[in-house]
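Dear support,

We are seeing what looks like truncated structure output for some complexes. This example has two components. We would appreciate it if you could run it in full and send us the complete token output so we can diff it against ours.
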Amino acid sequence: MNRIAVAGGLICLAIAARAAAQSTDQTSMPGMSMPMPVAKAPATPAPETTPAKEPTPAPAGGNSMADMPGMKGMDMSGAGQGQAPTGGDMASAAGASEPEIPAGPPPPAPKDHAADRYYAPAAMAAARATLRQEHGGAALSQVMANLAEYQARPGGGGYRWDGEAWFGGDINKFVLTSEGEGSVRQGLNSAELQALYARAVTPYFDLHAGVRQDFAPLGRTYATVGFQGLAPYWLDIQGALFLSTRGELLGRLEGTYDLRLTQRLILQPRAELNLAAQDTPQTQTGSGLSTAELGLRLRYEVRREFAPYIGISYDQKVGRTADFARARGEDPAAASLVVGIRAWF
Amino acid sequence: MKDFDRRQLLQGASLLGGGLALSSMLPGWAQSATAGLAPAMPTLTGTNIDLTISHARVAVDGRASHTLTINGTSPGPLLRLKEGQSVRLSVKNDLSEETSIHWHGVLVPFQMDGVPGVTFPGIKPGETFVYEFPVIQSGTYWYHSHSGLQEAEGHFGPIVIDPKDADPVAHDREHVVVLSDFSFMHPHMVFKRLKQQPGLFNYQKETLPGLLAGKDQTLKERVEWAGMRMDPTDISDVTGAVLKFLINGHGPRDNWTGLFKPGERVRLRFINSAAQMVFDVRIPGLKLLIVAADGQNVRPVEVDEFQIGNAETYDVIVQPTEDRAFTLVAEAVDRSGMARGTLAPRAGMTAPVPPLRERPLATMKDMGMDMGAMTMGGGSPSSGGMAGTAGMAGMPGAVPGTAPPKPRGFDAMGGMKMSMRDPRNAPGVKMGPGVQTIAPMPINRTAEPGQGLQSVGHRVLVYRDLIALAPNPDTRTPSRSLDIRLTGNMERFMWGFDGEKFSETTKPYAFRNGERVRVTLINDTMMAHPIHLHGHFFDLVHGPAGFRPRKHTVIVLPGGTVAWDFTAVPGDWAFHCHMLYHMHAGMFQVFSVRLLEGRGAA
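Here is the complete output from our reference environment:
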């Protein structure tokens, strides 16, 4: 029975991942598939009046109207756009009578560097390396606390964090992530650290792979693969699968959306689903959907990099995981008022 | 709320009291309330010119900051040269990092062009590099560092080259007007922030209360645009939230003032030295007679406003007849602030400062999806004879800038289906994470005003207005064409050409010495890009044959194309977006022209 739930959950994850990947392959409007014709083509059945050789002594005031006839055939392509130039100038007239100019081929790309003839080749080689570095080759970094909050709820407060740091270029990055939560009375409930290699694979999505180390509730080590990116409708989503050294398989899906109330006041709904393929009594995790976390946070961006927030978070343990909680005498559902800081640098 | 503060400031009377820039940090030509460029002003002329690159503390609108300096000032000294002379410029580097100077728009042998890693090795700390070249042109140009992000730190200055014969542009007085965008945040930090969260400087995004109040896009538009992950408010990457917009080194409160006598013909030499900001320039109460673009004379065109992209220059004649002050307004294209100065008969006079206008929203057309054109059967984005078409089918007689405001809700797809990223629409582009969109139907937009100027209610300059005054030197029909796609990903702040950042490219664009090539720039991104080619003027493909406007930098509107012909000059030449942060992110390439002549020619 649980198998089915698990399978369902993991299939969901897989579908989400695929959907994410797909939505980036074809950045398209809903349902769009029509490719535009590659318009290298004739477009211009214009008469071949070569303007080049003719010394057009364009008189100072008026302009040569000579090229006008060629315009007729062109009307369609520019239809409906732009305003005609004014001032009586027929500035746009020419060009229409241009003969078709063949595309290429270009000469072979030179292997030499022109400046090497004038300056020390070694100095030029060093300068070229810098040039490449400074025109697209930069490696940068970011450290971000996405959630760093106190959670007030009946029966004692708790805390929660979720952050990441990355270093690298546009395509390849090294990423560290950490998340966890605990209660003031009982201490850490869960804590994990992931070390990932992330690679940009589409305009909006990165794939990543690496290891996850849990420190609470139990020390566990997992291999992980996942994705992260921006889905249509400005949804930030991520998902991952985790396989522990003991063969346990877990999954996670997260999504957020930023709703701007003002240029600085932003309401962010957030959802996180955790899935498991098996019961793991040691971690009190049941198979299937194990926990769902729904949040709504209102942040004020004092600067983009620094935003205090308040909000609510609703955490629900589900299915067998809820059973484990009840057996411990805990309520499987918990609602918290949260206050925290979102900050990055 | 910084932006609101600024608006209030600009509208408020407190503005007029104003702080003062440390005037000692400004060269003579940039000093406020000067009568203009009299020969006595401390500009640099002659055949031997020494320049020293250093840094200093300055005050902008009363706020202290740091800037790079040239001979102790920022902007640097005016270099006033004469066509036909030769010049020897010794540039000493007093910084602790490498530097360089590129002579923007000045035709020099490639080894004197000043791009580290392309044309020379750069100038190491403590070193002096000597540039030497003949001056073979005239007009308004400028110079700036081509190392790292130094230009954004104030490393730039103006160049005026007087013609060897009589100047066809008659004037009684002239002022150089250098526009810039000073950042209180270090440019490296600006870049890092853009990579960490690309939209973070934008404080004019759409909001839920805005929707409820009936502002900006309709719900249907917002849902469709959100589905495409496109933000219509993404007009400028860096905004007034961290930038102060300057005229000749003066903030809006510093109020640079240029003097005139009523009735004089005053020549204003506008240079956009801003690292990232495009400006919309106007002087309420005065007509602007455009007489030169990028240093090249054009047939005079009278307008009320013009947009100036990064690195472009425009020479403008104004003729104020009244004995009163006029405000010179250079509004940021995203309306996040303005540079403000004054033209006045006497120092200390001011005129009302207009409030910032509403910021533009990107449209479907900016995505390369022109609904009008589409229903008419579509067009060719490519080279060929395409370039002359736009505008012809538009409303005849419509004055650019006076289009009726677009009705709200116009930018929904209306059931139209079209792929936003179909590789078949751009076979030459390397598709990867750096390519967010491919414009499905890009069109020539050179007859259109720039973003934000379509419906301002007065005459706006468009590229189609520009016609060269002098005959073009090379009127051959190009022997081949080349499409270059401007690509990017706004969500990752990746920018490049044909899908590649410069750091990823394996080969340059190759040309033969002397060959005439038609280059069509196709903008697949949702942002405008001012594209600059070093060492050449290119002829925009419009206007009467033989009198096409010649430029070194041209704005390619989002979803738009610009075609130009050029004659390849031997050497390696930088080719890039002149928005510094786009260039730094990878929108840079090299035009390699062979065979080489001269020393060791192959």
